[in-house]
Amino acid sequence: MTDIPLLKVNDLSKFYGKRIGCRNVSFELWPGEVLAIVGESGSGKTTLLNCISTRLMPTTGSVEYHMRDGGYRDLYHMNEAERRFLMRTDWGFVHQNPADGLRMTVSAGANVGERLMAIGDRHYGKIRSTAIDWLERVEIDADRIDDQPRAFSGGMRQRLQIARNLVTGPRLVFMDEPTGGLDVSVQARLLDLVRGLVNDLGLSAIIVTHDLAVARLLSHRMMVMKDGTVIEQGLTDRVLDDPREPYTQLLVSSILQV
């Protein structure tokens, strides 16, 4: 990790009328760091993720990103085209439902290749070769490159979505319940794959999950949310092994299986 944060979130809030989505959230994310945002359904964790990733406009606050040219940009002072380019190149977003992050009616190879074309690659042979390499990295046989995602299992679709997101060498990846809806054995295989890729590529990641076992396996640091507010944060093992807030203690005792 460097001594310069990759992402700075400052007093971020989102309100839906009188209802709180998230409130006064501030933190910094460092290069190579994985942050888990955990909490029960309705705690505000997905709202926060969507605000940070510019998928949802916050009510107040700012999100500053350290660009490749060395300067910081407030994401909400960028125009739409600049934000879209950032999402296609320097960021990834892994949805809980792979169908939300894939084009289901084009081939697996095209799903991966589209991201390469977004950064200017035009050589068909090179794009196909890179797509094959990434399919193999996420444990999909190369001979499935021309198959459409709708012919894949749920676990394969999620792995394809990961390949699509990582092929451009992003520095930051957002993951929204990446193992949700998968069988336990498929979850374990996917988690091992994600952990290996994050470590190998030196990625920063923000992972939203209700599963504290997922958070323990993947993250360095954890934030616990309740009613739109961050009530506890710290190193993941510290929060899980010695929770200080009564709500976190209840969450750990009722959900975490160790």
Give the SSE layout.
Blueprint: E1 7-16, E2 19-29, E3 34-38, H1 45-52, E4 60-66, E5 72-74, H2 80-89, E6 91-94, H3 108-118, H4 124-137, H5 154-166, E7 172-176, H6 184-201, E8 204-209, H7 212-218, E9 221-226, E10 229-235, H8 236-241, H9 246-255
Parallel strand pairs: 3-8, 3-9, 6-7, 7-8
Antiparallel strand pairs: 1-2, 1-4, 4-5, 9-10
InterPro entries: AAA+_ATPase (IPR003593), ABC_transporter-like_ATP-bd (IPR003439), ABC_transporter-like_CS (IPR017871), P-loop_NTPase (IPR027417), PhnK (IPR012700)
Protein name: Putative phosphonate transport system ATP-binding protein
Keywords: ATP-binding, Nucleotide-binding
Output the radius of gyration: 18 Å
Across the major sheet, the strand order is 6-7-8-3-9-10
What CATH architecture of the largest domain would you give? 3-Layer(aba) Sandwich
Number of domains: 2
Secondary structure: helix percent: 25-40%
For the record, the CATH class of the largest domain is Alpha Beta
Q: Which consecutive residue ranges, at least 5 long each, have pLDDT under 50?
A: none
Please provide the ordered H/E string of secondary-structure elements: EEEHEEHEHHHEHEHEEHH
Tally of strands:
10
Structural class: alpha/beta
Please tell me what the overall shape is.
globular
Domain ABC transporter: 7-252
Pfam families: ABC_tran (PF00005)
GO molecular function: ATP binding; ATP hydrolysis activity
Family: Belongs to the ABC transporter superfamily.
